[in-house]
Give the backbone structure.
Amino acid sequence: MNILVTGGAGFIGSHLTEYLLNQGHQVIVLDNFFTGSKDNLKHLEDNPNLKIIEHDIVDMLKRKKLDLEEFKIDQIYNLACPASPVHYQHDPVKTVKANVLGMINMLKLAKVADSRILQASTSEVYGNPEVHPQPEDYLGSVNCTGPRSCYDEGKRCAETLCFDYHRENKVDIKVVRIFNTYGPRMAVDDGRVVSNFIIQALKGEDITIYGDGSQTRSFCYVDDLVKGMVSMMETGNFIGPVNLGNPGEFTIKELAEKILKLTNSGSKIRVAKELPKDDPIRRKPDISLAKEKLEWQPEIDLEQGLKKTIEYFKNKLVK
């Protein structure tokens, strides 16, 4: 198949690209490299089935050097949006544009190319949830005027667009809601809790916790997530949305303690900052639907995944 991956140079996108190439597909990566890195794809550059195009999906697709309609595209994975608060709050208007204008452009392409399109949505559509764990039929508790809303509401609107294009134009859509994911190729400066804690531990710096550390998250290793996304893309009469994540729930303090143990670090845990505004207190996916419809559930536990991720950052910090 010919498969387009937008945001394919990002953390999750690069792992997805590699997986698809290993399955024998031809992959076109479209990325503006705002948060994605060319280094994430460097080991794949010589693969003749990979084509990398630098472009922003917010811009119109038809230009002299970029007319994706010239390619026969069978599937589109849309991952093109900054996913960490540090990056999506850097330019919140641009984040909204990526989620809305970018989504419209991708849906238009899917309609013209008669492609199936998978939208990488997020657990943030549930906001700071009042229901725990979060099932897909929970409508969420999102502050539409807060600093996180450019991402949270942007992703909610992107889902709306997907379903409207499906209803009005018969576009073949798939919507997955991604919960916290970690693994190699996370950016050093992305501000996410796993990468922050590992880097601080490896450098011997204090591990900084927001709030009192009792807030919870569920952490899914990237390989498990990619398999879930591909399973969703390939499944039949089911468009979602569906939660993809690991239902193991840990407090932030437990995560910090686990990383300290695995890195054998002498770092101390320091409770230094208040929780950011609208930061969710509890986060855990109900993956009953994914088990039923996709026959999918994560296989890599937190300790296994952290060991792989720590090894990646050890090598990264040496370079």
About this structure: The CA atoms of residues 162 and 168 lie 10 Å apart.
